[in-house]
Amino acid sequence: MNISLLFFALGVALMVWCLLISQLQTKPWLEKGLIEENGAVSLPASRVGLWVFLAVVTSLFGLFAVVYNMRAEFSDWRPLPEPGLLWFNTGMLILGSIVLQRARKDSEKNNLSSLKWSLATGSLLTIVFLFGQLLAWKNLAGLGYFFSTNPADAFFYVLTGLHGIHLVGGLCFLVLACIKAWGNIDRYNIKEKAQLNLRIQLCSVYWHYLLLIWLVLFSLLLST
Amino acid sequence: MAFVALADRDDDAHSHDPDTFITKYIWSQDHKVIAIQYAITAISVGLVALVLSLLFRLQLGFPDSFSLVDPTEYYQYVTMHGMIMVVYLLTALFLGGFGNYLIPLMCGSRDMVFPYLNMLSFWVYLLSVIVLMASFFVPGGPTGAGWTLYPPQAISEGTPGVDGGILLMILSLAIFIVAFTMGGLNYVTTVLQARARGMTLMRMPLAIWGIFVATILGLLAFPALLVAAIMMMLDHVVGTSFFMPEMLSMGTANEYGGGSPILFQHLFWFFGHPEVYIVALPAFGIVSDVLSVHARKNIFGYRMMVWAIVAIGALSFVVWAHHMYVSGMNPYFGFFFATTTLIIAVPTALKVYNWILTLWRGDLHLTVPMLFAIGFIFTFIHGGLTGLFLGNVTVDLPLSDTYFVIGHFHMVMGVSPVLVVFAAIYHWFPKITGRMFHSGLGKAHFWLTLLGTYSIYLPMHYLGILGLPRRYFAYGDTDFIPESAHAMNAGITIAALLVAAAQCLFFINVIWSLTKGKKAEANPWRAASLEWQTPDTPPKHGNWGAELPQVYRWPYDYSVPGASEDFIPQNVPDAYASTKDDK
């Protein structure tokens, strides 16, 4: 618990540091005239918005991880056998992340035909991952590990479910981008292309982050 | 890539131009309309909570004369009063209401960066309020578990509202968190990305600093409540044992086993303590601005004030267990949390000194908003000092769960923020509505509210030291409670009724002023910050007309030597400000 708290505090401190430290030194009552800013503010707003959202997601999963560890110390904790299928699913998610990174490069280099296929493959891999997770649930339930059998089981369902929901939310945006790319990207003007490019960038960041969260969750589930 | 202010980019900000009644006032994406929607909803639901408090106060003050509530309803009303006031009124009003209204105007942008998300945020918030209110009408009524919703009691047979009420409460909180997250993303991103040219972070008014840091706290702390809500919901509905221990309930063993109620308390207060500052920081910021404007003096120690806001925000995450000294946790925890709690008093006291030093030798204009702001300093000092008592483990143990605690937190996070809410409403009323309010009614409202709330909560400290426990329906004949305590309880109830009645003055004032009030000038308080420099009053959609403002100075240039007036607005370059010197 203490380690997670430490990480949490470090994260917050780092954020505050990056944002403020250079600015907090100034003496605004002495400075007159127009001050031009640069640096952090040059990012598109939606990108900053995504990172703020990822901070919220981190807080949510971080707290779940803390609670998981605290609850696992109780004597009634009976760990469940993680299905081997989860390894396959993890592979799918890693591949999905790689493919989306490729899509991002394709989009930046204006490599349209490759972009279409990367987006489609990325969506497909994610859907395979989600179905794999559902299958894992079914397997576990078949073996008699239900929600209310043991807190370890309940945590398994809650954590994988919550992660899945976040991925489904991202998938909506990815599929939208995919449909746009397959539709009439060849006729897009520069502004529309820039919008699609930004959307793909955001998707890839989100996918990498959810992959990271999944890896942490998976190791957490394996560790008990 | 060079910095391009939001409104200078390809015109996304104008894509939601309102043209029909519905897009203008109902499905509006304009931050000002959304702010008013938030404020009206929050104040309405707050009135419900106020009426609930009167009902149970009548029971407490005159246990034998009234039979308005039975013990079940008493617990339900106490619970709903607390939850509504803290979350659905104060959080929503400060961030959804004032945050929405002030951030774009004070930062010099046309709107929030994600207007559609902003609109969605309000409607989801409204949904959460409706779900909460629905719990009054389900069989068994709303939950009576106390606003902290501690398990196992909250979801055990025999607690009021265990059938539907607690589920609706949890559901409503979860929906509220979704709404808050959507709004919060907007507030943080707008402050970071959409400020006008020249508006550096250290040129932002303290109101924006308070709202900004409070929003970050909310974004990081509300997930703890969500985690707790999800797990408690599962305990109740599916029968998991996250929090629920094995125990005898009404004579029979329940089907749970091994859960930890303390775990819930940790989660709840990991949210709950930052929540105090989610309410307090915007209040700190707003009160700083109001004091500075009406004292015609720059805020004392601006940079220190910003540091204090950030420090309080960071520290608020490491004090939560001071709410749990009597929960049976490891005593070393208590030692640690008592220390951090006392440390957080340092930046807080610093802010109080700075407010007082801002007033010192200022040119005080005792307008209605100024009165409320000064009133806040008094109530906040009283509430803060009793916090030092409760922050110490050994002093807290005997005072825990007594009226001392009630007096403390109502003073520090009930009365104080509400006084700031009124200060803010009176202060920005001319800008929001384009009309002046009635000053005499406002002053009557202030004095009745300030003196009334003091006569409610000061006696409660005494009752607490006598040992009067909180959350009791009636005290009956108990040896350690003297007759005078009962008389005092009756007095508190009368004061509460008077304060509630005094709020009518406020609503009469608002309604009267909206129709008959004097037309307001663009800048009636002669304030320097950006929201008073809009071309229209009230500001139109897009806020700034054809051109965005540029910012040349900080927002506290009052009584500047050599300047032609006693204030220089933020968007005035030096050349125009010091005409007196040139002559």
Write structural notes for this entry.
The complex is a heterodimer of chains A (224) and B (583). The radius of gyration of chain A is 21 Å and the shape is flat. By secondary structure, chain A is mainly α. The longest helix of chain A has 34 residues, at 151-184. The mean pLDDT of chain A is 87. Helices cover 78% and strands 0% of the residues of chain A. Chain A has a single domain (2-223), classed as Four Helix Bundle (Hemerythrin (Met), subunit A), CATH 1.20.120. Chain B has a domain at 31-195. Helix content of chain B is 62%, strand content 1%. In chain B, strands 1-2 form a two-stranded antiparallel ribbon. At the A-B interface, helix 1, helix 2 and helix 5 of A face helix 5, helix 6, helix 7 and helix 8 of B.
Secondary-structure element pattern of chain A, one letter each: HHHHHH
**Which overall shape of chain B is indicated by the principal axes computed on the Cα atoms?**
globular
Question: Kindly, what is the distance between the CA atoms of the first and last residues of chain B, rounded to a whole number of angstroms?
Answer: 44 Å
Provide mean pLDDT of chain B, rounded: 91
CATH-level-2 architecture of chain A? Up-down Bundle
- Report the count of strand segments of chain A: 0
SSE-based structural type of chain B: mainly alpha
Q: Characterize the main sheet of chain B.
A: 2 strands, antiparallel
User: Compute the gyration radius of chain B: what is it?
Assistant: 24 Å
Oligomeric state of the chains in view = heterodimer
| Spatial strand order of the main sheet of chain B | 1-2
Helix content of chain A: over 70%
**Low-pLDDT runs of chain A:** none
Query: What do we call the CATH homologous superfamily of chain A?
Result: Cytochrome c oxidase, subunit III, four-helix bundle
CATH fold description of chain A: Four Helix Bundle (Hemerythrin (Met), subunit A)
In total, the number of strands of chain B is 2
Please report the number of helical segments of chain A: 6
What fraction strand of chain A? Answer: under 5%
